[in-house]
TrEMBL record:
Region (Disordered): 218-241
Domain (tRNA (adenine(58)-N(1))-methyltransferase catalytic subunit TRM61 C-terminal): residue spans on this chain: 72-216
Organism of provenance: Halarchaeum salinum
Record has tRNA processing as a keyword: yes
GO CC annotations on file: tRNA (m1A) methyltransferase complex
Keyword Chloroplast: no
Keywords from the named record: Methyltransferase, S-adenosyl-L-methionine, Transferase, tRNA processing
Protein name: tRNA (Adenine-N1)-methyltransferase
GO molecular function, a single term: tRNA (adenine(58)-N1)-methyltransferase activity
Pfam families: GCD14
A Gene Ontology BP annotation from the UniProt entry: tRNA methylation
CDD domains: AdoMet_MTases
Species lineage: Archaea, Methanobacteriati, Methanobacteriota, Stenosarchaea group, Halobacteria
């Protein structure tokens, strides 16, 4: 079994089969083959439940080397591009690797580039934790230098400052009908990526922002929360004709 969570109310501890986990509620001797839903007690008799890692858990528990793309944006990328099993994906700007892990867990074959070697090493460890080390390859380096030798892809995802320059070169690296998705924290980069896609002759060019708000329910009534996930980034999509 891969890494999993031990859960008790609002407490979550990342663990591995056969581990000895120290918590404020006691020490857990984790079995070698725990099953999801199994209850394991600490040496003080405090119960924890085994839970398999899923996508949102990766966002919370992967080791971070920066601000990872949030689930709300990852969901839009998957929904707008139709990312699916057996897709060949090029991802640039790996960072923590949350997007690459989500795509790998869909069954896509992902090649992801991270400019900083130390961040790439953390991302490789995160792919192992996510259980996708066999389908997600993390390379350290500049994707712009390697692009001409990489062939074609069903989907290209970019979270890099030079995304507009990469978009300009994608007509030879996307299959017919393939998508590019650019994540831009700043509107200047989003606009440049949008315009670059148009100039490159890509189709269905669109830039959006997704805002997420929770709902508050109490005795007075119901309304959107005054807190929430506001701006995280702009998403630019385009498609090879």
């Amino acid at each position: 079994m891969r890494a999993f969570l031990l859960v008790r109310d609002d407490r979550e501890f990342l663990s591995h089969p056969g581990a000895e986990l120290h918590t404020d509620l006691g020490v857990v001797d984790v079995p070698d083959d725990p099953d999801p839903g199994q209850v394991i007690e600490t040496h003080l008799g405090e119960p924890f439940t085994v839970r398999s890692l899923r996508g949102p858990d990766l966002f919370d528990h992967l080791e971070r080397t920066g601000a990872p793309m949030m689930p709300k944006d990852i969901g839009v990328v998957i929904g707008e591009t139709g990312a699916a099993a057996d897709d060949r994906v090029l991802d640039a700007g790996t960072g923590t690797g949350v997007l690459a892990a989500y795509l790998g867990r869909l069954g896509a074959d992902v090649l992801t580039y991270e400019a900083r070697a130390e961040f790439a090493e953390v991302a490789r460890e995160n792919m192992t934790l996510a259980g996708v080390a066999d389908t997600v390859e993390v390379r350290a380096g500049d994707v712009t230098e390697a692009l001409d030798d990489l062939g074609t892809f069903d989907l290209v995802t970019l979270d890099t400052a030079d995304a507009p320059d990469i978009v300009a070169r994608l007509d030879d690296h996307l299959v017919s009908g393939g998508f590019v998705a650019v994540y831009s924290p700043f509107v200047e980069n989003a606009r440049a990526s949008h315009e670059s896609a148009i100039e490159a002759g890509l189709a269905d060019v669109d830039t959006i922002e997704t805002i997420q708000r929770a709902m508050d329910f109490d005795d007075r009534g119901s309304r959107p929360s005054t807190r929430g996930v506001g701006h995280t980034g702009y998403l630019t999509f385009a498609r090879n004709p």
